[in-house]
Specification:
- The complex is a heterotetramer, with two copies of chain A and two copies of chain B.
- The mean pLDDT of chain A is 96.
- Helices cover 51% and strands 16% of the residues of chain A.
- In chain A, helix 1 (7-23) runs parallel beside helix 4 (66-79), helix 5 (85-98) runs antiparallel to helix 6 and helix 7 (226-261) runs antiparallel to helix 8 (273-297).
- Chain A is an alpha+beta fold.
- In chain A, the strands form three sheets. Chain A has a four-stranded mixed beta sheet. In chain A, strands 2-3-7-6 form a four-stranded antiparallel beta sheet, covered by helices on one side. In chain A, strands 9-10 form a two-stranded antiparallel sheet.
- Chain A is globular and about 80 Å long.
- Chain A folds into three domains: 7-83, Acyl-CoA dehydrogenase/oxidase, N-terminal domain (Butyryl-Coa Dehydrogenase, subunit A, domain 1, Orthogonal Bundle); 117-223, Butyryl-CoA Dehydrogenase, subunit A, domain 2 (Beta Barrel); 227-373, Up-down Bundle (Butyryl-CoA Dehydrogenase, subunit A, domain 3).
- Chain A is built from eleven helices and ten strands.
- Chain B is α+β, with helices and mostly antiparallel strands.
- Chain B has three domains: 7-89, no CATH class; 122-230, Butyryl-CoA Dehydrogenase, subunit A, domain 2; 245-395, Butyryl-CoA Dehydrogenase, subunit A, domain 3, CATH 1.20.140.10.
- Chain B is built from twelve helices and ten strands.
- In chain B, a hairpin with a 2-residue loop joins strand 2 (143-147) and strand 3 (150-157).
- In chain B, helix 4 packs parallel to helix 8 and helix 10 packs antiparallel against helix 11.
- Chain B is globular, with a radius of gyration of 22 Å.
- The two termini of chain B are 32 Å apart.
- Classes of the chains: A alpha+beta, B alpha+beta.
- Chains in contact: A-B, A-C, A-D, B-C, B-D, C-D.
- At the A-B interface, strand 6, helix 9, helix 10 and helix 11 of A face strand 9, helix 9, helix 10, helix 11 and helix 12 of B.
């Protein structure tokens, strides 16, 4: 048992914290609003080899373990960086795991920062149901024809390659029969509507109107993608929870500073015991969230049921704590905490949106109960 | 004890309903229902419709052109207008300045300003808060120095809601530094078009410029714009703040929000079933509904006592806290209900008739902005922390 | 709309408060521990005609409305009286509603304080399921034979008449087929185990081992008792919630006094802002509970669904608030709040047991959802 | 980072398990499982079994007869003994006084008292709190005045847990009124059989006389019973309080409580199904389980750091707060789970072998007493309010 970071991870953490602390400027964030990311920061992260930490050596990286994800995403969250590293993790994992040699080349390029990725899985009616896929892929000649609609595809308009899920057999909510396809940017028949997200970054609605693909676009075995999708999303859930943890740390640091400096009725408001105790509650819950993230990162390689129990436990707990921290941080700041000019705003929004991706706290509480009963 | 409304009150409610059916423009109620932006003209249009009927100023006495309603009648008005998705009545002239002028203004001020408020000739905003003062209102730093027939005003106000629409602002200004902080404050009416005034919008969490900073640089205000006596402004300000506030609990908003939440939860699907059939999500809705059912009755208890002439005490603070917490919870559940659709932020879609439509169902587009914006409910109007201190001191005599 | 008490109710409230404030002494409570009640207080309440407020004029009382119950039980709770007025309300209502002339005589006697009543409905496996009745009644000759077991029958050993539910037809959880019987004390074949309750008062386990009853023991129509039972329990739920409201008022008064007088670190602990805000939260929630009780009392005569929605809404909310108030009152007192010698103890226990009778907060939340969906 | 135990630690756990299987008397574990009362003899019996194995004093160094375990090993011991329903180790001599004597006691005191603690010759209790002082420990009023070879002690201690079983008490007494309140305190060992000592039981919410008041009326204590220096007692007391406390989080108790709760929820029926299948009740169990899973890892983080020689800071306070809240929630859910069976209070049934059996299933009888008794968890050992102030001051530097 050991809760110390290895020397390598400690170096990665230090380097990332230093770099992002300088790079994520108001100007960089402003620039990212129209395109969903700052090309400079993306390049900077590539230069540091950050993406490599998300993949194993086999996959072209130098990490890939749960605690590697934790280190990287906690720092992205702490700085409030909007670059689509989570999409690289999610889509990259699928390609790395299922792809043939040609396809895997994309992961290597992504790790180098040369290409961007996205995973188009969610649909207008799928909400958080991972197995609900209405988009259909039908064989046509040697290849495939895809028809359907994908919703809130983060980084969808910016990605050079999109991993798209489609049903090749089975009923609309069957686990069997889901296949993955790799679509390069600009594939004919794709209609993309790009828009900004509340938490920063961009997403897209994607209409696939009879998109024809060659046989080589299929990623992995036909109809067998569900397991890989669930595994990739477990990793992405760990990552987004670590991200939230970092954002909470910043929110609490801002709040702590504010309590110490802001004066009202003649003394720093941090001298008011009610606020002290609420600040203490925040800290206690953030420690809970940290431990939950550790639990999930430490069980990503466990058997499926154990892993998924930790997925739901962690997403539930971190979702609850993220809401508490965002709301309490704003409340303890008062009016200033409501304003866009003050740095807390983007962290509060980022934390507010945690619940909306990969399932909210209530969804995962119910899922935890079902997994435990199984 | 009797939980039923009287026959007269029921008749009033019926009259209100048919009025709203006839006269509330669907264009406006649709905007309110979808949470789209209301323009200045939208508010003015609705004010004019109500004013024509004599219902714009529910709490004003009839001699000043108000409806002269008691607390129960005003409550019924709130219930029905929110249920019908009518625009809210902009409170600054009607609910705030009006009563102060009626109580403390000169005959000339009343004759000049009150009709202008009713007719929509002026759009008022409130100049109370200052940067760094928060809930400590008495620490006013903006100064007004007498110079002949004018006051010369210098300083800064903040959190001025809808100041961008206003042509007039009522301000607390410091006219004396003697004595306690409360003693040297005056209540001044200032023309926003006067030279030396600058308005700077403050963008809030939801991306909207709802509030403003207002800067005063040697603004010359005629002395006849002083309300009441010099240095007595704190009395008038407190009257305004503690003046029986209708709708502090926001029951109407909460009911409308809950109905909207349930509608969404019936439309959204989770695990192949309507979200509202998910036992845990249904329980969350039920918890807030049960809480609201009780709070609505507390509100009626206070309203009913107020109509009988009793001044509400710490109950107002209790309603403020519970009412805002309930509304915020409804907002949070609505954001939760729309699932991933809460993430897209397409500002243009909040503009009715924009080319840029919402991403996903139209009911989803305002969920996140409303959730974020309403975090203010527990901060402004005396933060919930301030209210709790008032409750503890008043009832526990601590 | 009017939230003022009528003059009569105001007088009843004042009288009860004055009387119980003097009568519920440590000695009276001590004496009540072995028998479940103080005969002096029971006599005192009878003399005041308190039981009459629980019944309509037709039934031999002078009240019977929801707000009559509220006034009476709030005062019983405020004083922490343990006398079995709730059992009189519950069983008395059933006899008054369903009984023939002879049987109704019992209600008149009970209102006068001459006899005591109990309602034996719960069973070892029924928990909060009102329709789950395993005890069976079979016709034998002109009369009936009852066999089964009744659990936690409050006032069971002390009652002169017990209303017993038994199944005369149908499945174990059917609403149809439940009948009521009126058993006088000392009926042969009844085995009673009497024991004290955590909240004060006594209850009993009752074994019915082939108890033979005459035809006249049947109360109301055979197999049709469910509706009356549900209605009676709705009234009892209003009463127990009003009782809890009274107990909360006392708990908050004790806590307020303590905060004002108890000094720590050189000042009254009520000066600590964290405790002030928690005290304010308690007060806010107690007002919520009061409004919930008003809602239920005001809807006892409404149609069944409306009434039951208020039953579950109120029992849920008051259950939650009772827990909060009991726990916070003890916590804000610190060690002294944990001790039996200090008066808070019996109120904390009384509030702790609210959830255990007629369904807990979680049970009623689920029931509210089902009723709303119906 | 590595969440796994080492092979050595796993082997230790296995050894513990087989030891517990062999040596823990079923009579005792059954009492613990059912929440029945343990007698003085029960505790002494279990202590003796552990002492024989050398495992009674896990945190004492080997030279004093302890097991010399590090924090991880002690954690494993806690986990396994609570899971096996072993009686807890009575902490007053072993966990509290022992370390103080080892650090500050004279050689003579160590040689005399430490073996007696291990052998069960003395049953110690703690004389810290005084009436009206609560968490303000430094306000000690009990005096000890030097008179020749003795101190004469007068005053009163309270909340003395299991004082009714004790023959010895370690006390904080005031030996000087000079300087700050902390400066005139001494640490004294007092024989409870000395003339002038009276013990009065205090009955708690659950009806049990678990704690006591101890009165001192001119009690003469030999000077050799002073630990360390006169007027330095505050240092020793603080050492005891801040001395790395194992099991402050109570993870073992919480795990055992959760397992018991789930067992009950599987046995109890609601609406014709096991209670555990009720979605809302299952969700409540899940919430506390998820909270516990995280807290257990926080605990391991602190334990692991302690084993590596780091002194825990405000993390202890965090674990105290979260750990007690979790245990109290498990107690509350257990009371809820047993339904109406929580109401009967048959004190005799808590006595093993009594003629008076429990009302209802045996798993139900301790639900209410445990719920009520464990309200103390957030009050004693530094109330949760005190802990939150410590956290705020330490980490926020407020």
């Amino acid at each position: 048992m050991n809760f110390q970071l290895t020397e390598e991870r400690q170096m990665l953490q230090d380097g990332l914290r230093r770099y992002l602390g300088e790079a994520v400027t108001p100007q960089a964030l402003e620039a990212a609003q129209t395109t969903g990311m700052s090309p400079e920061i993306w390049a900077g992260l590539s230069e540091m080899g950050v993406a490599g930490a998300l993949f194993t050596e086999d996959q072209g990286g130098f990490g890939g373990a749960g605690f590697d994800l934790m280190v990287v995403f906690e720092e992205l969250g702490r700085a409030g960086a909007v670059e689509p590293m989570l999409e690289l993790l999610l889509a990259g994992r699928l390609v790395a795991e299922l792809g043939d040699e040609t396809q895997q080349e994309i992961v290597a390029q992504a790790v180098e920062g040369a290409v961007q990725l996205a995973f188009a899985h969610g649909e207008p009616a799928s909400r958080f149901d991972l197995e609900r896929v209405e988009t259909r892929a039908e064989r046509s000649g040697d290849g495939w024809t895809l028809t359907g609609r994908k919703s809130v595809v983060v980084n969808g308009a910016q990605a050079d390659h999109i991993v798209v899920s489609a049903r090749t057999s089975g009923d609309v909510a069957d686990r069997d029969g889901i296949s993955l396809f790799l679509l390069p940017k600009g594939t004919a028949g794709i209609e993309i509507r790009d828009y900004p997200l509340s938490q920063g970054g961009h997403a897209a609605e994607i209409v696939l109107d009879g998109v024809t693909l060659p046989a080589g676009a299929l990623l992995g075995a036909e109809g067998q993608a569900f397991e890989a999708i669930e595994t990739a999303q477990a990793r992405a859930t760990a990552a987004i929870c670590a991200d939230a943890l970092g954002a909470m740390e910043t929110a609490r640091a801002l709040t702590g500073d504010y309590l110490k400096t802001r004066k009202q009725f003649g003394q720093p408001i941090g001298k008011f015991q009610a606020l002290q105790h609420r600040a203490a509650d925040m800290l206690i819950e953030i420690e809970q969230a940290r431990s939950a993230v550790i639990n999930l990162c430490g069980h990503l390689e466990a058997d499926r049921d154990t892993r998924e129990i930790h997925v739901s436990a962690t997403k539930h707990l971190v979702g609850k704590v993220a809401r508490l921290v965002a709301e309490e941080a704003v409340q303890m700041h008062g009016g200033i905490g409501m304003t866009e000019e003050y740095d807390l705003a983007r962290f509060a929004r980022r934390l507010s949106m945690l619940d909306q991706r990969f399932g909210d706290a209530t969804f995962h509480l119910g899922r935890f109960v079902r997994l435990r009963a199984a | 004890m009797d939980l039923n409304f009287t026959e007269e009150q029921k008749a009033f409610r019926a009259e209100l309903r048919s009025f709203l059916e006839e006269r509330l423009p669907e264009r406006l109620s649709e905007k309110v229902r979808l949470g789209q932006r209301l323009t200045k003209q939208d508010y003015e249009e609705w004010h004019a419709i109500l004013n024509e009927k004599g219902w714009l100023a529910g709490n004003w006495p009839k001699e000043h052109g108000g409806a002269g309603w008691n607390a129960v009648e005003r409550h019924i008005f709130e219930e029905e207008t929110t249920a019908a998705h009518a625009p809210r009545i902009v409170p600054f002239g009607l609910a705030m300045l009006g009563p102060v002028l009626q109580k403390f203004g000169s005959k000339e001020q009343q004759d000049y300003w009150l009709p202008r408020i009713l007719n929509g000739d002026d759009w008022w905003c409130q100049g109370y808060s200052e940067p760094g003062a928060g809930s400590d209102l008495a620490s006013v730093k903006t100064t007004a120095v007498r110079d002949g027939d004018h006051y010369v005003v210098n300083g800064q106000k903040t959190w001025t809601t809808l100041g961008q629409y206003a042509n007039m602002i009522f301000c607390l200004v410091r006219t004396s530094k003697e004595g306690k902080p409360q003693e040297g404050i005056s209540f001044l009416l200032v023309d926003m078009n006067d030279p030396g005034i600058t308005v700077r919008p403050i963008v809030l969490l939801d991306g909207e410029p709802e509030v403003n900073e207002v800067f005063f640089d040697n603004v010359r205000v005629p002395v006849e714009n002083l309300v009441g006596e010099e240095n007595k402004g704190w009395t008038y300000a407190k009257y305004l703040l503690t003046h029986e506030r209708t709708n502090i609990a926001g029951v109407g908003f909460a009911n409308a929000g809950l109905a909207n939440l349930k509608r969404i939860a019936r439309l959204e699907q989770s695990g192949g079933r309507p979200l509202i059939e998910d036992p845990l999500f249904a329980a969350k809705i039920a918890e807030v509904e049960i809480s609201l059912m009780a709070m609505a009755t507390t509100n009626l208890r206070v309203v009913s006592a107020a109509a009988a002439g009793q001044a509400p005490g710490a109950e107002s603070s209790m309603l403020k806290v519970k009412g805002t917490v309930i509304r915020q919870e409804i907002n949070a559940l609505t954001k939760q209900a729309v699932g991933p659709w809460a993430m897209p932020f397409v500002s243009e879609a909040l503009e009715a008739g924009s080319n840029e439509g919402p991403v996903g169902p139209s009911y989803a587009m305002s969920a996140t902005p409303h959730y974020l914006n309403n975090r203010k409910l527990s901060i402004y109007g005396g933060s919930n922390e301030v209210q709790k201190t008032i409750i503890a001191k008043a009832i526990l005599e601590l």
